């Protein structure tokens, strides 16, 4: 079940940020980034689809429609995120005057490694993200709760159809390693053990990437 988004907080240490013309936009984006990340980590951001014949079918379906409408910008934001991820992988600089580059940069610096969380943003558009100042982006990062991969909600799972998450893992694996010879490697999807199925094996993905001569399990 998808919980309702909280009202944006009005707490911040920066007077200039609070007095900025885009104050409301900043507070909304900050609140949504934090909420989306929390939903992703708890595994409770997906929509619940009722079965035919359920007495609450119409109510639950209308609720899902409202969530879909609120998340209408997210597929576009995912593409900006992937573009930024690719530029970082290829060591290409951002163009300061490019709207797509700024939007992707904002998303990547906050959600890198947890890009699926972008799917749970509500009423956050590229236009809103472009308006964020450097100071506001730093405040968002400063207040971000750091991830602990060993503490997850009971319903947490990686969504299988989000191929771009696998792409993200492959591109960021050993990112700072100096270039070396290419080797065909098997990359393991990030493992999350379950008490119900402790022997479950991670899926394997074949890629070509310049890597150190060692084994990795993400």
Features:
2 strands; 218 residues; globular; mainly alpha; 8 helices; 6% strand; 2 domains; two-stranded antiparallel ribbon
Description of the structure:
By secondary structure, this protein is mostly helical. It has 2 domains: 15-143, no CATH class; 176-218, no CATH class. Helix content is 42%, strand content 6%. It contains 8 helices and 2 strands. The protein has helices at residues 15-18, 23-42, 57-70, 74-89, 99-111, 126-130, 134-143, 163-172, and strands spanning 182-188, 204-210. It has a two-stranded antiparallel ribbon with strand order 1-2. Helix 4 (74-89) packs across helix 5 (99-111). The longest helix has 20 residues, at 23-42. Residues 174-195 and 198-218 have low confidence and may be disordered.
